[in-house]
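Problem: given the chain below (267 residues), write out its structure.
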Amino acid sequence: MNVNNPSKSAAKRSKVWRWLLVFIAAILLIPPVGLWVWSTTGSMEPDGVAQAALESDDRVTVVESRNGVQFWPADLATQSTYPLGFIFYPGGLVPAEAYAAHLRPLAEAGIPVFIPSMPLNFAIFDPNEAADIISLYPEIESWAIGGHSLGGSMAAQFAGQSPETVDALVLWASYPADNLDLSLQDLSVLSLYGTRDGLIETGVIEDSRARLPQEASLVPINGGNHAQFGRYGFQDRDLTAEISADEQLEVVVTETLTFLQAVRSGR
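Solution.
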Protein backbone atom coordinates (compact mmCIF):
# COMPACT_ATOMS: atom_id res chain seq x y z
CA MET A 1 0.00 0.00 0.00
CA ASN A 2 1.46 3.39 -1.10
CA VAL A 3 1.03 6.23 1.33
CA ASN A 4 1.97 9.81 0.27
CA ASN A 5 4.39 11.62 2.53
CA PRO A 6 2.64 14.94 3.47
CA SER A 7 5.89 16.83 3.81
CA LYS A 8 7.14 15.69 0.39
CA SER A 9 3.80 16.54 -1.25
CA ALA A 10 3.82 20.02 0.30
CA ALA A 11 7.40 20.60 -0.86
CA LYS A 12 6.50 19.50 -4.38
CA ARG A 13 3.48 21.83 -4.49
CA SER A 14 5.62 24.70 -3.17
CA LYS A 15 8.20 24.12 -5.91
CA VAL A 16 5.51 24.09 -8.59
CA TRP A 17 4.07 27.35 -7.30
CA ARG A 18 7.52 28.98 -7.20
CA TRP A 19 8.16 28.10 -10.84
CA LEU A 20 4.68 29.25 -11.79
CA LEU A 21 5.26 32.62 -10.12
CA VAL A 22 8.64 32.97 -11.84
CA PHE A 23 6.98 32.22 -15.19
CA ILE A 24 4.21 34.79 -14.61
CA ALA A 25 6.72 37.41 -13.45
CA ALA A 26 8.81 36.82 -16.58
CA ILE A 27 5.79 37.33 -18.83
CA LEU A 28 4.91 40.57 -17.05
CA LEU A 29 8.46 41.86 -16.76
CA ILE A 30 9.98 41.16 -20.18
CA PRO A 31 7.84 43.62 -22.23
CA PRO A 32 8.48 46.63 -19.93
CA VAL A 33 12.19 45.84 -19.71
CA GLY A 34 12.40 45.42 -23.47
CA LEU A 35 10.55 48.69 -23.99
CA TRP A 36 12.87 50.45 -21.54
CA VAL A 37 15.97 49.16 -23.33
CA TRP A 38 14.50 50.17 -26.70
CA SER A 39 13.53 53.63 -25.51
CA THR A 40 16.86 54.37 -23.86
CA THR A 41 19.08 52.97 -26.61
CA GLY A 42 17.00 54.12 -29.56
CA SER A 43 16.29 57.70 -28.53
CA MET A 44 17.45 60.47 -30.85
CA GLU A 45 19.78 63.00 -29.26
CA PRO A 46 19.53 66.80 -29.68
CA ASP A 47 22.10 68.20 -32.08
CA GLY A 48 24.30 71.24 -31.58
CA VAL A 49 21.65 73.68 -32.78
CA ALA A 50 19.17 72.36 -30.23
CA GLN A 51 21.78 72.41 -27.49
CA ALA A 52 22.65 76.04 -28.22
CA ALA A 53 18.96 76.99 -27.91
CA LEU A 54 18.97 75.73 -24.32
CA GLU A 55 21.12 78.62 -23.11
CA SER A 56 19.42 81.49 -21.26
CA ASP A 57 20.06 85.06 -22.37
CA ASP A 58 18.52 88.52 -21.98
CA ARG A 59 15.51 87.49 -24.11
CA VAL A 60 14.65 84.01 -22.78
CA THR A 61 15.08 82.25 -19.48
CA VAL A 62 15.52 78.49 -19.93
CA VAL A 63 14.62 76.14 -17.08
CA GLU A 64 15.76 72.51 -17.42
CA SER A 65 14.84 69.72 -15.03
CA ARG A 66 14.06 66.03 -15.05
CA ASN A 67 10.47 67.06 -15.83
CA GLY A 68 11.39 68.73 -19.11
CA VAL A 69 12.29 72.15 -20.48
CA GLN A 70 10.61 75.53 -20.02
CA PHE A 71 11.21 78.72 -22.00
CA TRP A 72 10.10 81.94 -20.29
CA PRO A 73 10.10 85.35 -22.00
CA ALA A 74 12.63 87.39 -20.05
CA ASP A 75 10.80 90.66 -20.68
CA LEU A 76 7.66 89.24 -19.08
CA ALA A 77 9.39 88.06 -15.93
CA THR A 78 7.77 90.81 -13.86
CA GLN A 79 4.30 90.28 -15.31
CA SER A 80 1.55 89.02 -13.01
CA THR A 81 -0.30 87.31 -15.87
CA TYR A 82 0.50 85.88 -19.29
CA PRO A 83 -2.03 85.89 -22.16
CA LEU A 84 -1.08 82.49 -23.59
CA GLY A 85 1.04 79.46 -22.73
CA PHE A 86 2.06 76.63 -25.06
CA ILE A 87 2.60 73.00 -24.04
CA PHE A 88 4.39 70.75 -26.54
CA TYR A 89 4.54 66.94 -26.43
CA PRO A 90 7.69 65.40 -28.01
CA GLY A 91 7.53 62.66 -30.62
CA GLY A 92 8.12 59.02 -29.72
CA LEU A 93 11.68 58.29 -28.54
CA VAL A 94 12.63 61.96 -28.97
CA PRO A 95 13.83 63.89 -25.88
CA ALA A 96 12.29 67.25 -25.03
CA GLU A 97 15.57 69.07 -25.65
CA ALA A 98 15.54 68.16 -29.36
CA TYR A 99 12.76 70.73 -29.96
CA ALA A 100 14.52 73.63 -28.27
CA ALA A 101 15.52 75.43 -31.47
CA HIS A 102 11.98 75.21 -32.88
CA LEU A 103 10.20 76.39 -29.73
CA ARG A 104 12.55 78.93 -28.16
CA PRO A 105 11.52 81.60 -30.74
CA LEU A 106 7.96 81.43 -29.38
CA ALA A 107 9.24 82.54 -25.98
CA GLU A 108 11.28 85.27 -27.64
CA ALA A 109 7.94 86.52 -28.98
CA GLY A 110 6.35 86.50 -25.52
CA ILE A 111 4.78 83.04 -25.22
CA PRO A 112 5.91 80.78 -22.35
CA VAL A 113 6.66 77.27 -23.66
CA PHE A 114 6.66 73.95 -21.76
CA ILE A 115 8.14 70.73 -23.20
CA PRO A 116 7.56 67.90 -20.72
CA SER A 117 9.85 64.87 -20.58
CA MET A 118 7.66 61.82 -21.11
CA PRO A 119 8.06 58.42 -19.43
CA LEU A 120 10.40 56.31 -21.58
CA ASN A 121 10.17 59.16 -24.14
CA PHE A 122 6.62 58.18 -25.11
CA ALA A 123 3.77 60.67 -24.65
CA ILE A 124 1.33 57.77 -24.77
CA PHE A 125 2.37 56.91 -21.20
CA ASP A 126 1.34 60.32 -19.83
CA PRO A 127 -1.07 62.07 -22.21
CA ASN A 128 -2.51 64.13 -19.32
CA GLU A 129 0.81 65.72 -18.35
CA ALA A 130 -0.56 69.05 -19.62
CA ALA A 131 -3.13 69.07 -16.80
CA ASP A 132 -0.33 69.15 -14.20
CA ILE A 133 1.44 72.00 -15.99
CA ILE A 134 -1.76 74.03 -16.33
CA SER A 135 -2.55 73.61 -12.64
CA LEU A 136 0.87 74.95 -11.67
CA TYR A 137 0.55 78.22 -13.60
CA PRO A 138 -2.80 79.93 -12.91
CA GLU A 139 -1.21 83.20 -14.02
CA ILE A 140 -1.40 81.97 -17.64
CA GLU A 141 -4.83 83.02 -18.92
CA SER A 142 -5.24 80.67 -21.89
CA TRP A 143 -3.52 77.59 -23.25
CA ALA A 144 -2.49 76.02 -26.53
CA ILE A 145 -1.16 72.48 -26.78
CA GLY A 146 0.70 70.72 -29.55
CA GLY A 147 3.12 68.00 -30.40
CA HIS A 148 5.16 66.17 -32.98
CA SER A 149 4.13 62.79 -34.42
CA LEU A 150 2.87 60.55 -31.56
CA GLY A 151 3.16 63.55 -29.24
CA GLY A 152 0.76 65.47 -31.46
CA SER A 153 -1.80 62.67 -31.34
CA MET A 154 -1.62 62.64 -27.54
CA ALA A 155 -1.92 66.43 -27.48
CA ALA A 156 -5.03 66.16 -29.65
CA GLN A 157 -6.44 63.62 -27.22
CA PHE A 158 -5.88 66.00 -24.31
CA ALA A 159 -7.43 68.89 -26.23
CA GLY A 160 -10.48 66.78 -26.97
CA GLN A 161 -10.90 65.92 -23.30
CA SER A 162 -10.31 69.49 -22.12
CA PRO A 163 -12.49 71.83 -24.21
CA GLU A 164 -12.82 74.30 -21.31
CA THR A 165 -9.06 74.49 -20.86
CA VAL A 166 -7.41 74.32 -24.27
CA ASP A 167 -8.07 76.99 -26.90
CA ALA A 168 -5.73 75.84 -29.66
CA LEU A 169 -4.00 72.75 -31.03
CA VAL A 170 -0.78 72.60 -33.07
CA LEU A 171 0.10 69.39 -34.92
CA TRP A 172 3.54 68.79 -36.44
CA ALA A 173 3.57 65.73 -38.73
CA SER A 174 0.65 64.37 -36.75
CA TYR A 175 -3.12 63.89 -36.66
CA PRO A 176 -5.87 62.97 -34.18
CA ALA A 177 -6.59 59.28 -33.66
CA ASP A 178 -9.25 57.75 -35.90
CA ASN A 179 -11.68 57.53 -32.97
CA LEU A 180 -11.21 61.17 -31.97
CA ASP A 181 -13.56 63.69 -33.59
CA LEU A 182 -12.75 67.34 -32.86
CA SER A 183 -14.83 68.71 -35.73
CA LEU A 184 -17.53 70.26 -33.51
CA GLN A 185 -15.17 71.59 -30.86
CA ASP A 186 -14.48 75.32 -30.49
CA LEU A 187 -10.77 74.85 -31.10
CA SER A 188 -8.25 76.65 -33.30
CA VAL A 189 -6.06 74.10 -35.12
CA LEU A 190 -2.86 74.30 -37.15
CA SER A 191 -1.51 71.14 -38.81
CA LEU A 192 1.94 71.27 -40.42
CA TYR A 193 3.33 68.36 -42.41
CA GLY A 194 6.22 67.67 -44.75
CA THR A 195 5.68 66.41 -48.26
CA ARG A 196 8.72 64.12 -47.84
CA ASP A 197 7.54 62.50 -44.62
CA GLY A 198 8.45 58.82 -44.68
CA LEU A 199 6.71 57.88 -41.42
CA ILE A 200 3.26 59.38 -42.01
CA GLU A 201 1.64 59.45 -45.42
CA THR A 202 0.47 62.85 -46.60
CA GLY A 203 -2.93 61.39 -47.44
CA VAL A 204 -3.44 60.25 -43.86
CA ILE A 205 -2.92 63.77 -42.56
CA GLU A 206 -5.12 65.29 -45.26
CA ASP A 207 -7.85 62.77 -44.45
CA SER A 208 -7.72 63.87 -40.81
CA ARG A 209 -9.21 67.23 -41.80
CA ALA A 210 -12.67 65.66 -41.47
CA ARG A 211 -12.00 65.09 -37.75
CA LEU A 212 -10.82 68.66 -37.19
CA PRO A 213 -12.85 71.88 -36.91
CA GLN A 214 -13.91 73.32 -40.26
CA GLU A 215 -11.56 76.30 -39.97
CA ALA A 216 -8.51 74.16 -39.18
CA SER A 217 -5.47 75.11 -41.23
CA LEU A 218 -3.47 72.29 -42.88
CA VAL A 219 -0.17 73.59 -44.22
CA PRO A 220 2.22 71.40 -46.26
CA ILE A 221 5.94 72.10 -46.06
CA ASN A 222 7.24 71.36 -49.54
CA GLY A 223 10.33 69.18 -49.34
CA GLY A 224 10.14 68.82 -45.56
CA ASN A 225 10.38 65.43 -43.87
CA HIS A 226 9.43 63.95 -40.49
CA ALA A 227 12.64 64.30 -38.48
CA GLN A 228 13.31 67.94 -39.35
CA PHE A 229 10.43 69.04 -37.12
CA GLY A 230 13.07 68.57 -34.43
CA ARG A 231 16.87 68.69 -34.32
CA TYR A 232 17.95 65.10 -33.64
CA GLY A 233 19.31 63.88 -36.96
CA PHE A 234 17.92 61.44 -39.49
CA GLN A 235 15.19 59.02 -38.43
CA ASP A 236 14.80 55.43 -39.62
CA ARG A 237 12.22 54.98 -42.41
CA ASP A 238 12.04 58.72 -43.03
CA LEU A 239 12.60 60.12 -46.53
CA THR A 240 15.46 62.43 -47.40
CA ALA A 241 14.28 66.03 -47.18
CA GLU A 242 14.54 68.30 -50.19
CA ILE A 243 15.08 71.36 -48.01
CA SER A 244 17.67 71.84 -45.30
CA ALA A 245 16.97 71.42 -41.60
CA ASP A 246 17.45 75.17 -41.15
CA GLU A 247 14.94 75.95 -43.88
CA GLN A 248 12.34 73.63 -42.41
CA LEU A 249 12.93 75.04 -38.94
CA GLU A 250 12.30 78.55 -40.25
CA VAL A 251 9.00 77.55 -41.86
CA VAL A 252 7.83 75.66 -38.77
CA VAL A 253 8.66 78.57 -36.47
CA THR A 254 7.05 81.17 -38.74
CA GLU A 255 3.80 79.23 -39.25
CA THR A 256 3.49 78.21 -35.59
CA LEU A 257 4.27 81.65 -34.23
CA THR A 258 1.88 83.41 -36.63
CA PHE A 259 -0.87 80.98 -35.61
CA LEU A 260 -0.28 81.35 -31.86
CA GLN A 261 -0.06 85.13 -32.04
CA ALA A 262 -3.49 85.13 -33.71
CA VAL A 263 -4.82 82.89 -30.94
CA ARG A 264 -3.31 85.19 -28.31
CA SER A 265 -4.93 88.24 -29.83
CA GLY A 266 -8.30 86.51 -30.04
CA ARG A 267 -8.53 86.40 -33.83
